[in-house]
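>> received
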Amino acid sequence: MVVVFDGELWIWAARRADSWTFVSLPVEVSEEIRDLAGGLRRGFGSLRVRVTIGGSTWTTSIFPDRTRGSYVLPVKRAVRNAEALAAGDIATVTVELLDF
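>> returned
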């Protein structure tokens, strides 16, 4: 499964001092992923993905966020720097689920 969407980067309030930056997957897509994944989960309910933003591609995990009702994707500092992105910016994100 490959998903492409535009999402706003945001900082996790609980880790604001560390500037952990995320983008939320759309709720509808997250529901589809939950159905597809079934019981297949790793720590914290994570799922392995390959992500592309601009010219940067990397492998990471998405995590369920009950508050937002969707999966969230961490966007590491190296990618934010390479793509000139900061919290509040909108990025076009490609997410490919791995291990399915």
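>> The longest strand covers residues 2-11.
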